[in-house]
């Protein structure tokens, strides 16, 4: 049956300009780092994308290596079968920098690597262009000019509309932006890991690049900032399966007292912990968008309700800092 998007899909989502550009990013994006591979349930992947778009999430985020380099195939098939009439309403993003093929040109930031990766990604997804394409990590062994100029060339060729960087410090991101600006190419965002429990961007200068916005992945710290681990470690969770080096059972034990205190505050506000965590993130300096992951549609709906609540007060923000820091 043909997918028809909800008529009210834009009514409850907020949008913010990326950097100094005119491009508006949804407050919440859907990422395909996990759960969108060929090993996953295809029908569930479809329903998560339908749910996300119905909630006003207009951006789907990928990378060449997500889900063992299969996410672009899966998401591309869904886009081409079920979203062809909505392509101009969507932002599709991908990245190059981490390994997705063997050999010396399968990772990092040489012109050979990033352009070949970009072309593979477009082919895998059967797309004409990406809306934003990222340098996925800073390459200390390749001149930054080589990486960014190669991607600027691709913008001129129509393979992407905007550039982004990911996992860059503030200094590295600003240097990249200036190179792109010298070519009249908009480099508009730095995608970084940032959440209540991981506040590294506050010390790397990532928040201090005034002409760049932050898109923040892992806003729930792999599920720690949700109700998933408040009582025990589910066997089918990332910590329970030991599938993610960024999420182990020891992390749950380490943070559990803080998570429980944060959950009390969320309940006082009448919202879930995950909703409060996203709301907190969206209030931080330079943050334009939170990049969520999900394993089922209901999680997406819950996260999207984050934008419905009253802003955190100064007293509540201070209470959060006291719990965490």
Give the gist of this structure.
The protein is an alpha/beta fold.
Beta-strand segment tally: 10
- Number of helical elements: 11
State Rg. Answer: 19 Å
Helix content: 25-40%
- The average pLDDT value, as a whole number, equals 94
**What would the principal axes of the Cα set say about the shape?**
globular
Tell me the span between the first and last alpha carbons.
51 Å
Beta-strand content estimate: 15-25%
Structural class: alpha/beta
How many strands, which pairing sense, and closed or not: the largest β-sheet?
8 strands, parallel, barrel
What does this structure look like?
With 325 residues, the chain is of the alpha/beta class. It is 38% helix and 15% strand. It contains eleven helices and ten strands. It has helices at 42-54, 66-69, 71-82, 111-125, 144-156, 170-182, 238-241, 249-268, 273-282, 297-304, 314-324, and strands spanning 15-17, 24-26, 28-31, 59-61, 91-96, 130-135, 160-166, 187-193, 213-217, 287-292. Strand 5 (91-96), helix 4 and strand 6 (130-135) form a beta-alpha-beta unit. The chain starts with 14 loop residues before the first strand and ends with a helix. 46% of the residues are buried. The mean pLDDT is 94.
